């Protein structure tokens, strides 16, 4: 055949340590039909400060692969919520081969066509809270690339038609495909008139959706005559691939004929006509009442008592597994993203007769519905049983309904199908099933009522069970409960939802309480973070006593909003919010930075004309508000204003030192008992905040931060200026009709401007 190679790539993304599915990076690919091999090239490299991160530690990267929907992963081995089905996926761990780069390759032979999803993450870290911009962070970037090789012009087999083929000596196989429409109960592939050097040295392989593999359904034509291979309960609306492979070492040319028969389950005694128009046999699903379909009023054929199923080929006759029942559609009602209800016509109460199953179909749209959770709920109306020991079994299968005729063992699985089994009876009248990230397409629910006896389950007589059926699509399981938040995430044009848990709760639905915080612990952490702000009361009292009223107002503002911000910021249920969270956070950050600003400006003891105008206070408030609006967690939001204020203070102190010819402040007691202890306390607070704080110790380390910062303000705030009894004149500056006298004591901050008398102003 002719091969075509396609290449797909994705933009590199930064990986994060795993905490929940919300912290992973998801990549979406689409594999075309007739693909014989898909190769993923997984590229990972390190970066630090815009350059290659050769000094970054090696951290393993886990990549998950799944077809049809995102992978449901559980690297932390937490518990899933009850009644949750966990679909499987394949995981691959990448190790580093170079200091700053590594690659991995993942090959899939004959992959299923359609959507494929890759999920990648780093291992869980210790949860350290780092200050943004304090140091260059190591970044791990991941970029997947996909190379597919697909066959073109694959021969199509038409049901009932014979295709002749001659396999040359240099050829080993021939590949065909046939489309299986809805309401098909059996696919029968037969090799006829096989002639070769050693009889019929051929293998016959059949597989749905993709070319066959070595472990696909296989038949050796040398051991079976006629060479027929049957597939019961095939997938509807899909291609089936037929591979005729020659035995190795067989010389010469092998000629044969291939034919396919599709059995219509609505009329099991009849095969589909040899040829149907392309609209009927290739693309169009059969509607109720149309040719080849089953109308709601049709009666099912009788069951033969000796019906059996065999994997070996058998004639196209009536079999229990070949009949189908009316499929009742559901009405799709979209309420919001991943919020879809499927309503049953004349429901939600459905009747399950004793002689035949009730079959329903739920259609999930491609790509749009695979990022949520498919929920199914069955509730049995016990009063409808009339005292009989009735059990209603439900089978949920993907792409084909499954109704077993075996009453002794009720199962929803066959050799090629896997489904989910539900059951309700008088004792357990309610059952639920949740499927996170379901595969899209048609899901079929088959309900069947059986009566329990001493010899197992038997068909009931004259008892029609009534079942309440509810099917819906939701973003998360139970909206993640009270200890989680359901987040809507996006990767390129694909949307999906995931839970982000808090207060130590884990799991897919935030239901695993193995590491959960107790109510007492939550209350203690909230009280510590809130009541530690009471430490601002002494600085407020000192500021009021020293006539620093503006500074006292800022400290009160900080104390108030810090208290209520931390009361609203708690992860558990001990939460109290008086305003919106964003408003409280902004006011808390602004109050903290303004406290540092006004304290340092007060220590500078600037000229009275500057201080009375409050130019620097107003300028600081405006600049800090702008900086916080740009980035509230940046390092320079804290360091920038602090360094600028310290620079102003240093200039003022240096000017006074030069003018007075000795150090300012002049007394050693001020340095030993106030400035040095206050500076050390503030430095200790900054070190705790920047290097020690983690998610586990946040509640008490941050409380200590509150205590230290408030305590340092009490030490650093300058005392009230004392009045001087003698007002000595300094060099005069001539004004308009007056001589303005400047008091040296007042300039040095030793005189309260409020007590300056009229004597300090001299008339000319």
UniProtKB/TrEMBL annotation:
Membrane topology qualifier: Multi-pass membrane protein
Cited InterPro entries: EGF (IPR000742), NGX6/PGAP6/MYMK (IPR021910)
Keyword field contains Transmembrane helix: yes
Location (main, coarse): membrane
Compartment(s): Cell membrane
Keyword Lipid biosynthesis: no
Positions of transmembrane segments: 516-536, 548-567, 573-597, 609-628, 634-655, 671-692, 698-717
Gene Ontology, cellular component aspect: plasma membrane
Key words, A-Z: Cell membrane, Membrane, Transmembrane, Transmembrane helix
Pfam families according to UniProt: DUF3522
Membership in a protein family: Belongs to the TMEM8 family.
Protein name: TMM8B protein
Top-level taxonomy: Eukaryota, Metazoa, Chordata, Craniata, Vertebrata
């Amino acid at each position: 055949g002719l091969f075509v190679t396609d290449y797909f790539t994705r933009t590199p993304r930064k990986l994060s340590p795993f905490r929940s599915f919300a912290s992973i990076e998801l990549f979406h690919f689409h594999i075309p039909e007739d693909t014989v091999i898909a190769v993923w090239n997984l590229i990972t490299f390190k970066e630090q400060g815009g350059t290659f991160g050769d000094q970054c530690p090696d951290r393993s990267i886990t990549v998950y692969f799944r077809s049809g929907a995102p992978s449901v992963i559980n690297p932390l081995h937490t518990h899933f919520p009850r009644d949750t089905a966990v679909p499987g996926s394949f995981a691959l761990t990448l190790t580093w081969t170079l200091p700053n780069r590594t690659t991995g390759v993942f090959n899939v032979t004959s992959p299923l066509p359609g959507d494929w999803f890759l999920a990648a993450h780093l291992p869980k870290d210790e949860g350290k809270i780092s200050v943004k911009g304090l140091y260059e962070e190591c970044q791990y970037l991941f970029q997947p690339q996909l190379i597919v090789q697909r066959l073109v012009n694959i021969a199509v087999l038409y049901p009932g038609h014979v295709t002749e083929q001659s396999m040359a000596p240099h050829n080993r196989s021939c590949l065909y495909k046939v489309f299986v429409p809805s309401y098909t109960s059996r696919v029968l592939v037969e090799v006829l008139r096989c002639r070769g050097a050693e009889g019929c040295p051929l293998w016959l392989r059949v597989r749905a959706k993709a070319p066959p593999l070595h472990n696909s359904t296989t038949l050796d034509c040398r051991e079976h005559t006629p060479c027929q291979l049957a597939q019961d309960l095939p997938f509807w609306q899909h291609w089936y691939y037929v591979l005729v492979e020659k035995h190795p070492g067989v010389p010469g040319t092998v000629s044969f004929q291939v034919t396919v028969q599709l059995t219509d389950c609505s009329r099991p005694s009849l095969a589909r006509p040899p040829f149907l128009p392309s609209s009927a046999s290739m693309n169009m699903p059969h509607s109720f009442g149309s040719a080849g379909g089953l109308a709601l009023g049709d009666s099912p054929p009788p069951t033969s008592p000796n019906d059996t199923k065999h994997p070996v080929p058998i004639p196209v006759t009536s079999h229990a597994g070949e009949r189908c029942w009316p499929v009742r559609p559901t009405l799709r009602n979209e309420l919001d993203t991943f919020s879809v209800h499927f309503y049953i016509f004349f429901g939600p109460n459905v009747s399950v007769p004793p002689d035949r199953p009730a079959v329903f179909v739920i259609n999930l749209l491609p790509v749009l519905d695979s990022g949520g959770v498919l929920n199914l709920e069955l509730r049995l109306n016990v009063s409808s049983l009339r005292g009989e020991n009735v059990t209603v079994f439900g089978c949920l299968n993907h792409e084909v309904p499954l109704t077993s005729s075996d009453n002794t063992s009720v199962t929803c699985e066959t050799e090629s199908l896997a489904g989910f089994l539900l059951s309700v009876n008088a004792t357990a009248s309610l059952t639920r099933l949740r499927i996170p990230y379901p595969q899209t397409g048609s899901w079929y629910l088959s309900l069947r009522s059986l009566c329990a006896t001493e010899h197992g389950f038997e068909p009931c007589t004259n008892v029609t069970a009534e079942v309440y059926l509810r099917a819906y699509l939701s973003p998360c399981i139970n909206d993640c409960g009270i200890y989680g938040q359901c987040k809507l995430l996006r990767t390129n044009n694909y949307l999906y939802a995931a839970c982000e848990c808090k207060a130590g709760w884990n799991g897919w639905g935030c239901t695993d309480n193995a590491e959960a915080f107790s109510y007492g612990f939550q209350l203690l952490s909230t009280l510590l973070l809130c009541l530690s702000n009471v430490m601002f009361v002494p600085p407020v009292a000192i500021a009021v006593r020293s006539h620093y009223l503006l500074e006292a107002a800022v400290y009160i503002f900080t104390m108030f909003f810090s208290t209520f911000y931390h009361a609203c910021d708690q992860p558990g249920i001990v939460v109290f919010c008086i305003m919106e969270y964003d408003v409280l956070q902004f006011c808390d950050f602004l109050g903290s930075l303004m406290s540092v600003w006004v304290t340092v400006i007060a220590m500078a003891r600037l000229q009275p004309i500057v201080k009375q105008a409050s130019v620097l206070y107003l300028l600081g408030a405006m600049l800090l508000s702008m900086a916080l609006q740009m980035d509230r967690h940046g390092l320079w939001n804290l360091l920038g204003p602090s360094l600028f204020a310290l620079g102003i203070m240093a200039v003022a102190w240096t000017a006074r030192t030069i003018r007075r010819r000795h150090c300012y402040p002049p007394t050693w007691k001020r340095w030993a008992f106030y400035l040095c202890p206050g500076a050390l306390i503030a430095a200790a607070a900054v070190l705790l905040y920047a290097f020690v704080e983690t998610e586990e110790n946040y509640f008490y380390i941050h409380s200590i931060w509150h205590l230290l910062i408030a305590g340092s303000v009490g030490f650093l705030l300058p005392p009230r200026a004392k009045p001087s009894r003698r007002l000595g004149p300094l060099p005069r500056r001539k004004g308009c009709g007056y001589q303005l006298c400047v008091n040296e004591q007042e300039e040095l901050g030793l005189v309260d401007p409020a007590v300056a008398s009229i004597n300090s102003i001299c008339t000319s």
